[in-house]
Structures are given as structure tokens and as C-alpha cells.
Amino acid sequence: MSVGVSAAFGGLEEAPDEPEQLTKGAEFDQGQVLTRFEDAVVGRAGNDGLGVPGRRYLQIIMKVTNQSDRTVSAYLMDRALPTVWADQKKIKAKDAPITSGPRIVVSSSGRSTYSQLHPGVTSTVIMAFEMRPGQQPPKSVQIDAGTFEWTKTFVSQTYEWYQVTETAPPTEEDRKKGRTSQSRPKVAAQVRLPVTVESA
């Protein structure tokens, strides 16, 4: 925790935690999963189940270890990485529905894909964004990474993994519904990856 001096009040006050800044190859413990950020690549889909053959995708490639004791969907990573930018343009928003978001798959030797992360197993997870015809590849991506904590539930008094959130000012939609704040995933780390482009 960083501490800052408040001149206005003549004393010390706690400054907010700044997200950890990470780059290619970094490993980040997100609680329920341990994630290593391997690469960001623009390439065409093949016969591996990733997407539509012949179309181009921006692929964020990770090595993910499920640190829990149960099998979970790979789409957990959609919540674990709530926001993604390409050249500072947001391409994945934290509140976007899964159906309109990226395709997230677990790759098996580059030949097939599936959708589960098994306990204690490290898997290659790919988050893929389809690119428009003629769209120029970005030079870099930035990824917001959140964390999960093992917390006792209020109703059943059992423990579950819950995403760490924070309170933020309301959006315009929140104000229309009479809300004075919103709860959003807390960004614990920001990852910057250069984008490489595969030959056609």
C-alpha cells in the first residue's frame, strides 16, 4: 500500500493502490487462476476450432493454471480480464455480454479446442477478437486484470470464489435507475503486450 502526504489536511492519508504494471511473459496470481501472458498475435483461423477459417483474429495467448479444486469454464477469463484495449481503443468492455464479446478457448496442441480448465492443470487459453476485412492490426494491446478471493457466502455460509470489486461513480444508465454508485471489477494489474502479425 502506498502512502501519500496530503498538504491540504496537513497529515498523511492513504493513496489508492495503483495497478501492477506487467509486460509480455509476466505471471500474475489472480487467486482462482494463475495467468502467464504469453503473446498477442494477429493471424487467420485454421482448422483448430478457434474461429471461422480464413478470417483474421487478434489473439491474446495465455498459460492459465486453475488453482481451485473444481473444473471451471474457460469463460472465467472473460471476468478475470474485464477490459481490453487495442492501440488505446477499447475492444472489450467489462459490462459487455458474453455473446458479443471475444471467443475464449483452451487450445490443445494447436489442433483442437475445448472450454474447460481443470484443477491444478496449466492450459493454453486464447482470447480471440475477430477483425474486420481490411482492418489494420494494432501495434499493442493493454489488458486489465482483476482478482478473485475465497469468501464465505452470506446465505449458505460456505466458501466460494468471488471477484474483487470496488465502488465507482454511477454511469448515466445507473443515474436513470436512481443509483448513486456502481460496483465494478477492481483492476489489480495492467498488462501491455506488443502485437505480432503472422504471415498470411
Q: What's the arrangement of secondary structure elements?
A:
Layout: E1 3-6, E2 11-14, E3 20-23, E4 27-29, E5 33-44, E6 56-66, E7 72-73, H1 76-80, E8 83-86, E9 89-92, E10 103-108, E11 112-114, E12 116-117, E13 122-130, E14 140-145, E15 148-152, E16 159-163, E17 165-168, H2 172-176, E18 182-185, E19 189-197
Parallel strand pairs: 3-19, 5-19
Antiparallel strand pairs: 1-2, 4-5, 5-6, 6-13, 7-12, 8-9, 8-14, 10-11, 10-13, 14-19, 15-16, 17-18
Describe the protein in words.
About 5% of the residues lie in helices and about 50% in strands. The strands form five sheets. Strands 3, 4, 5, 6, 8, 9, 10, 11, 13, 14 and 19 form an eleven-stranded mixed beta sheet that branches. Strands 1-2 form a two-stranded antiparallel ribbon. The termini are far apart. The chain is built from two helices and 19 strands. It has about 200 residues and is mostly beta strands. The N terminus is likely disordered. Strand 4 and strand 5 form a beta hairpin.
